[in-house]
Specification:
With about 475 residues, this protein is α+β, with helices and mostly antiparallel strands. The chain is built from 16 helices and 11 strands. A 4-stranded antiparallel beta sheet has the order 4-5-9-8. Strands 1-10-11 form a 3-stranded antiparallel beta sheet. About 5% of the residues have low confidence.
Length: about 475
């Protein structure tokens, strides 16, 4: 009951300022803009042949589990009788593998056998970036690793069975479209050597992550262009909502909640504490939790609303994006601990705002410097490099300060896993060299605990 009373008091303080109303109006306008998006799937008669021709030359070894991309030479895919039923797509697929020399197995058998094996030697290549902001892993998004042709023996190719072929094709549809329930059935029919027939059923294909969509704004009034569904949702969720939107929300929340503690500790207000059965430390912690509840509810409206609206408009539902709600709350918990500590010592909301935003800016600069330093180390042939002292400063700052940037990277990874296809993930190198959740969260928790302990000590021992 005491916590609820303090929470209501904090809520009234937040509602007293016009900033909260501006923020709510902006949130509603943004959600309205998201609701005006229209997604029109491209026709299957065009998408299926294009994907089979342009994308199926790539595969993921180790039965689709490898982080390395492989290539399939000499295999041709020809779809026919393409039918669309709602979001489901069915067609007949003819696969032709170039016959081998001197009685060797055809190229499709070799590709299936290679798909089961781990990659060997690899080379690093670059391709045009699929997103507008180099954020994931903070390495060039166009850089990816390509496996050299995987050696397959005659015995391994001869051991390939029809179930292995169907498993390979089903994995290809999962890798390139994000369809995990693809059904590929061999057709029992006499065909020339090196030619295979399959019946393919792709459930919810036109709503899959890799299916091209005609994107429109204002309920189709403005045509944006044709893009992949997963890439569109990723940009909206990660770069706009969890990037720009979360940054603005944090800054405004710092300003709004900066007055909570100074109003509590201003001269004469602590007399009320003596008349109530609640300790000073508990009172301060309740006030701190009240500020976290405020940002939690605000982020739940923004992130939860975005998730629901995008799901209704696009048909894509992935609950992993909702992790952004506790992640933003946790990030704010770090900043609000700084604000609480400054407010207890200075009794000034202005000082709390300036020092908290300054602390956030320092964390941002250190994170950016560390990312840039890692990129320079990975490119020894780059024309410009920092002096050794700059690398030392960026590494030391990243080691001893809270991992604000790492939390951002990890949330980007979670969002990408729920929106991008496996092959897009490999091109963006998001599965490599990411920070540890334990280190990123643990160090921030340690800072929060220390700052709150200092604030509680000062609050308990100060006079009125």
């Amino acid at each position: 009951m005491q916590f609820c009373a303090i929470l209501r008091d904090s809520f009234r303080e937040a509602m007293d300022g016009f900033v909260i109303y501006v923020m709510l109006v902006l949130s509603l306008l943004f959600l309205g803009l998201i609701a005006s998006l229209s997604f029109e799937p491209a026709p299957a008669s065009r998408v299926i042949p294009d994907v089979l021709l342009q994308r199926f030359v790539l595969f993921l070894p180790e039965s689709g589990a490898s982080q390395i991309i492989g290539t399939i030479p000499g295999v041709r895919y020809e779809p026919s009788a393409i039918e669309t039923e709602g979001s489901h797509v069915r067609f007949r697929l003819k696969v032709q593998g170039t016959p081998g020399r001197n009685g060797e197995a055809d190229a499709f058998r070799k590709a299936t056998a290679a798909w089961k094996k781990p990659p060997g030697k690899t080379v690093k290549l670059s391709a045009p970036s699929t997103t507008s902001r180099p954020k994931l892993g903070d390495k060039p998004l166009s850089e990816f690793e390509l496996a050299e042709p995987i050696a397959v023996t005659t015995e391994e190719a001869a051991a390939v069975t029809p179930p292995m072929m169907t498993a390979f094709l089903e994995n290809q549809f999962a890798v390139h479209f994000g369809i995990n329930g693809a059904q590929v059935t061999p057709v029992d029919q006499t065909t020339p050597a090196g030619e295979y027939l399959f019946d393919v059923h792709l459930p919810r294909a036109t709503a899959s992550r890799g299916w091209p969509q005609s994107l429109g704004l204002f309920f189709g009034g403005v045509e944006v262009g044709e893009v992949g569904l997963g890439q569109t949702i990723y940009i909206l969720e990660d770069q706009i909502v969890n990037g720009i939107g979360a940054g603005i929300s944090l800054m405004i929340a710092v300003v709004i909640t900066a007055f909570f503690i100074p109003n509590l500790v201003r001269k004469g207000s602590l007399d009320l504490i003596i008349a109530k059965p609640i300790g000073r430390v508990r009172l301060l912690l309740y006030k701190y939790l009240g500020g976290l509840t405020f940002i939690f509810l605000l982020s739940a409206v923004n992130f939860g609303g975005t998730w629901v609206i995008l799901g209704l408009r696009s048909g894509h539902w992935d609950p992993r994006f909702l992790l952004a709600i506790p992640m933003l709350t946790f990030t704010f918990a770090l900043l609000y601990a700084v604000s609480t500590l400054v407010a207890v010592f200075t009794r000034s909301a202005i000082a709390a705002i300036i020092l908290t935003l300054g602390f956030a800016f320092v964390l941002y600069l250190i994170g950016q410097a560390k990312s840039l330093a890692d990129q320079m180390r990975a490119m020894p042939e780059a024309p410009f490099h920092w002096p050794d002292s700059a690398y030392t400063i960026s590494d030391t700052g990243n080691t001893i300060l809270p991992r604000y940037k790492d939390l951002d990277k990890l949330m980007s990874l979670v969002t990408a896993e729920g929106t991008l296809t496996p092959i897009e993930m490999r091109f963006m190198t998001v599965t490599k060299e990411f920070p540890s959740w334990g280190e990123a969260v643990g160090l921030s928790l340690a800072y929060i605990a220390v700052m709150l302990a200092c604030a509680c000590w000062r609050f308990r021992n100060r006079d009125g």
